[in-house]
């Protein structure tokens, strides 16, 4: 039956919660309601979140990575510097990577390389250096 018109879609109905499950919040209220309205992160917030992500990538990187994993991580680091949202920071990071190629041969070597990169930034910001021999305690194993 081709009338040239498409049937009007019927609105989705709210479903009752099944025992031991919760009705998704999206159905109960507008998506934006539970979120605080905040401005985009500033450079300091961005930096802190970024270093957390990068250090956790190092902490979960294989102890003995394959040659493909090593190449992939090097490529990630390079691309990361190309797309980082703070242009000044990105330029600085790319310069560091050019003069200090990422050592992706083991988890520990990459973790220390990343720690040294972070320390370069800390020095520029007037912050203390972190002891890179302790990077796994801070980002992987935890303090005793």
From TrEMBL:
Record's keyword terms, sorted: Disulfide bond, FAD, Flavoprotein, Mitochondrion, Oxidoreductase
All copies of domain ERV/ALR sulfhydryl oxidase, residue ranges: 39-139
Reactions mediated catalytically: 2 R'C(R)SH + O2 = R'C(R)S-S(R)CR' + H2O2
UniProt key word Secreted: no
Protein name per its UniProtKB record: Sulfhydryl oxidase
Predominant localisation class: mitochondrion
A GO term for molecular function: flavin-dependent sulfhydryl oxidase activity
The UniProt record lists the keyword Nucleotide-binding: no
Annotated EC: 1.8.3.2
Top class in the EC scheme: oxidoreductase
């Amino acid at each position: 039956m081709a009338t040239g018109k498409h049937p009007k879609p019927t609105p989705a109905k709210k479903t009752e919660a099944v025992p031991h499950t919760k009705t998704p919040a999206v159905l109960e209220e507008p998506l934006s309601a539970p979120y605080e309205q905040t401005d985009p992160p500033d450079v300091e917030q961005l930096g802190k979140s970024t270093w957390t992500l990068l250090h956790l990538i190092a902490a979960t990187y294989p102890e003995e990575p394959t040659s493909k994993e090593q190449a992939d991580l090097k490529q990630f680091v390079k691309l990361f510097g190309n797309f980082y949202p703070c242009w000044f920071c990105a330029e600085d990071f790319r310069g560091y990577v050019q003069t200090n190629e990422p050592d992706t041969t083991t988890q520990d070597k990459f973790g220390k390389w990343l720690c040294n990169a972070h320390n370069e930034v800390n020095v520029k910001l007037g912050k203390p250096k972190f002891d890179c021999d302790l990077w796994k305690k801070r980002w992987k194993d935890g303090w005793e």
